[in-house]
Amino acid sequence: MMLVKVTLFFLIIVSIKYIFKFINDCGDNNIARMKELIDFTEYLQIYSCDMKMSFEEIFLRYEFKSKETEQVCKMLMNELNHEEKNNRKNFVCIMKEIMMTPDEFNKYFTDIIDYYGSAYSDVLDKKLGLTLKEMKNSMNCFEIINSERKNLNNRISLLVGCLVAVILI
To answer: Which pTM value belongs to this model?
Structure first.
């Protein structure tokens, strides 16, 4: 009987640990999506400024790792093709729903709508460089917060697991 209780105790702790691991993985997935958007923006900077390619050509040439990033970039392409660019807030909201990235990061990425296609190549290069810098800073802040959250969740998961196991057994 004691062996069953000890086994149940450790299984409950491990189960709760996995639940918190899943929560931590969500933050890591957000960071991976942010990195891919930064990579796409760097790719956009190189190919639109140096190689003088259109956004559509760049979009078709880039190999996306996630469908969410591809969907957001396709929406960006559609937004750039529209004459009226007043759906910026709507784009930020949709981007947040799809990517689950912080608003600050989304706003920096959305800034591309304002100046892409209306600036000369050297100005566009500088503006995309500035956007990339801001996106990287935003991602680094999110990474620090996510790391602290993961450390806290790891500590809490052990305590919650023990508490639940003691209550149930």
So the answer is: 0.84
